[in-house]
Protein 1
Amino acid sequence: MGYVDWSVAIIQPFLQGLVAFVVNLLLAIIVFVIGYLISVGIGKLVTEILKSIKFNKLFEKEGWKTALQRARIDVDPSGFIGAIFKWVFVMVSLLVAVDILKLVQFADFLTDVLNYLPSVIGAALIFVAAVIISDIVEKLVRVAVERMKIGYGYLAASIVKWSIWIFTIFLVLDQLLPNSMLVQILYSSIIYGIVGALALGLGLAIGHGGKDVAAEILQDMKKKMMQK
């Protein structure tokens, strides 16, 4: 029976494991730091791009800044979108670092978070597009109606703008909560509510002399079109 040096048999594997862990830890830290710096750069780039296209001014025109100020929320729209992109890439860097350390459960959690982040980014992009599109369409509708010299350009533009925003809200909710019964119920409720309110309002208006008012409006529009 041979002699076994238990100190070597126990300590050597421990030291090997410790060295491997330290090497992996240093590698994970380096990967995360580099990824974090890249993430910060991407966030700043997105912020500067949005500022260059005057996104903040469009945000203010739509009344969102005023609404947030009333709620005592001070936010830089371009910076907020840029921060979303930054933290997405920070999460990716953290996932890579965690994978190097072989922390399986934490890596699975981060994977679930990252799988949901595209929905958040999609919702943010939809919101940005809605701010830009609603501003452009509102101006086009107002100019088109005013050029027809029938008046009510501001009213028509406002209706179109808010129609875009209502549609956008549902797109964002559907992006964040895909196949959600709550979103479908909310969508149906609002659509039926708007139709019902319009029908009720029209009925009450006609019943309380609104017929004469409507006739005057139509007559006014007819005169303006005849004068062209």
Note: The mean pLDDT is 72.
Protein 2
Amino acid sequence: MSKKTAEIKDYFLKYLDKINYKGFFGVANFYSVYNHLIDEQQEKLKKILQDQFNEFEEKGTIISLGICYDLKIIDYINQINESVIDKERWDMYGSEYKHINRLLKDISSEIALKFNGIAIPPTTETPSHEINNFTDYFLKTISHRLVAEFAGIGWRGKNELLITEKYGPALRLTSILMNMPLIQGEKMRRKCGDCRACLDVCKFLNNKHNLKDYRENCRKYILSLCLNSNVCGKCIKACINNRICKNTFINSPNSKII
């Protein structure tokens, strides 16, 4: 079990070296993740696995892969130049968002093929005009954040994103279903403390408990920005710039955070 885990991890590390990005690798228990998914995503997993589902319940695992943003890109989010939002720079963040998703899709497919797994795409590529409500996304994928939580990569922050000790929420995630036991991580305790930077920068997050679904409010706000990519990132930037452990972030282009 340890040998196979190390082999897969090493394969991912070599990929990070090749593309010169930082990243995270972890393994979660399949059954633990499944039990915490919403009903629609549980059904999606059953549909994907079909006759293999019972085997996965007994011994299955889910690999979590994360690739990090360059922190300079995060700084481009919601930049104000001469009292005007610099949307051209903000779009650079959106372009990197898509690029990292493609990298994750490529490596997860490679690993799935080489080690007999099933890759779950990093995010839906459904055009925004085909989405009528945030809940439409639920059937497109599973919660990669939840997998990463159970893999011990990070904890769920107040912005509802995965927060890592070394890189905050500045990463994208994907998952690979594995019909084999691998060395699993453990969930981390939340370490946000009294920090509320993400809440202060976003009125929807700050009022999420009073809204029917704050994510739908976020979706509509993002559309109103008229950016080239339908991503915001303001809460990510706030976390990076203000969180208590910001000085622990690693920003060396050669360091790999595994």
Note: Residues 2-191 form one domain.
Protein 3
Amino acid sequence: IKKPSRVTTMAKKFNVTAQEIHRNFERMVNSGLITKQKDNNYALTTFGRAICTQIHSVSFLSQNKKYLKTHGFGNTPPKFLRRIGDLSNSKEITGVSKVLETWKKIYRSADEYIFNVLDETPLDLIELMIKRVKRGTKYRHIISENASIPKGRKKLLEKTGFYPLLEAEKIQRRMLHTVQVSVIINEKSAGLMFPDLTGKPDLRSMFYSEDESFREWCMDYFKYCWNASDPFKEFKLKE
């Protein structure tokens, strides 16, 4: 009920009987969610309005019950879990190849920036990132100290001109002791990967969306990680 409404109005809107609407309204009145006003309109109570703000959280969790049987939220701070409803307008991408293709899509469509928090970076994504940076896209990268590093990474960085871009601060990188939740963000969309139940990052599944609330959640999580991160130390990464 976005605004005070009568039983008959709601019955017409949802194409059900007035008796059915009345029964449900009575249940909500008894629960303290709505109240009947003097003009016979029904309106949300303060409690009801507060409960409505939680619907997206319940929706996301219930829609992904199967996913949550094999995945957890890792070390995600409680303040982000309280906003889990912001992720409700997203779709799950499954399968390593589809996840990587979506990852590339986020990189390719970036004009202003690419920010990420990762536990590994495939070689072909490194090349794609450098191409975007050379076109003017800002790149900020946080990686785990125990990240999975592909063989040939250092040679590829040298070959593609990574280090001059780093010196020019067009690329910035930081490090976290552990990364369990991965995010990839540009100014238009974002991808989010939660870990399995052991806390290990899972590249077989990604939530992706162009929804602003979803992207904002991912951006706020990135900023949180960036502020908590340490200076990048190359010697900690081993191919």
Note: The longest strand covers residues 138-148.
